[in-house]
Amino acid sequence: MESKFDVASVRKQFPILEQKVYGQPLVYLDNAATTQKPRSVVKRIEDAYFGQNANVHRAVHLLSQQATEAHEAARVEVQHFINAAESDEIIFTRGTTESINLVAFSFGEAFCREGDEILISSMEHHSNIVPWQMLCERKKMHLKVIPIDDNGCLLFDEYAKLLSPKVKLLAITHVSNVLGVENPLRQMIELAHSQGIPVLVDGAQAVAHMSVDVQALDADFYAFSSHKIFGPTGVGVLYAKRNLLEQMPPYQGGGEMIDQVHFEKTTYNKIPFKFEAGTPDFIGTAALAEALRFVEEIGLDKIAEHEKQLLDYALEKLNQVKGFQLIGKIPERHAIVPFLLKGIHSYDVGLLLDKLGIAVRTGSHCAQPLLERLGMDTCVRASFAFYNTTEDIDRLQAALNRIGNMFN
Ligand code: PLP
Questions:
Q1: Domain ranges, ordered by start, for the chain
Q2: Could you tell me which of 97, 216, 321, 404 has the fewest CB atoms within 10 Å of its CB?
Q3: Ligand 1 atom 6: residue of nearest CA
Q4: In angstroms, what is the span from residue 127 Cα to ligand 1's centroid?
Q5: How far apart are CA 122 and CA 129, in angstroms?
Q6: What is the CATH number of domain 42-296?
Q7: pLDDT tens, 86-139?
Q8: Contact at 8 Å (CB) between 369 and 124?
Q9: Does the beta carbon of 173 sit less than 6 angstroms from any atom of ligand 1?
């Protein structure tokens, strides 16, 4: 079974997938941690360094103008990719983590007081927990957590009960990086907004798998990382509504973010530059734009369809493996299969899969509170991208059978 999607020709764009690991053809199933890069993205980096490298927004010379144009064109590319109303609402950061830290600091300074609350869920990545804990500590505020059921689905009624005038922000993941479950964002945001509460969405695990429209969602903040959507590491995006950004103070000080600097007083640049202190990773942003074009050319609808077929195939095949325990019975999963093999520690499963050429992630997946809630401290996670195939799943199934036989 293979979808109409031409996975073979797509794979040719990813040279890393052709390599062998311990003598076995690589099966890369750790895409939730980071994705592989197509030729066009790496070529964009090379072209930029060899043909266009000069600092942006500063000099009048041609190279600097070209680099600035590429960097600002990348902002527009991101704007269109997530359907933001304007490119000034796109801030470049180092990744999802920095985007969330920016909001926790800057929104916290502007809008939060002692006794206020921040609301998150039980399934958050540490990046969407710790910055809020730090804010709460700094401002003597309280962190409230929306509970989930035993399968890992958010309890909507409990969420509704936690909303109150004390809540200053809801920070919620779009898709869980452990379970692949998608949260009902539209309903959640609508309810939060009906009480005047803005919402930050952690989109790290969503953008590569579904088309995201920040205006349709009415998200106030939306964060994601370039490296999880086939772009380079070290670049991230924070989308934020203009009216919020204009009320928030800068996150870091330095060059680029200023208007006038005098020892007596400094005034700040307009958005988005107010939030981009120092030299940005302008080569990385241009390469991110290339990655987004690559994804758009394939089409997120086709990607989602292919990944759904892969997921269905994987669940069918892996459920036949003796001792395979899927974590969480979730109606709609995205590209992630978290599991245990009965009686075998996750680390042993991960290590042995590696020796058989299969890369998966083991551990607590930067979501310790979630694993604790589900009654475990580690699990194995196989996560897909559009370049994965049913043969990859067959290899995983065969390898798990072999590992099971070795232990039993
Ligand atoms: N949020 C989620 C849901 C994630 O899966 C990740 C990374 O795995 C992050 C945040 C952090 O992303 P980064 O390390 O790129 O900042």
A1: 7-30+299-407, 42-296
A2: 216
A3: 204
A4: 6
A5: 9
A6: 3.40.640.10
A7: 999 999 999 999 999 999 999 999 999 999 999 999 999 999 999 999 999 999
A8: yes
A9: yes
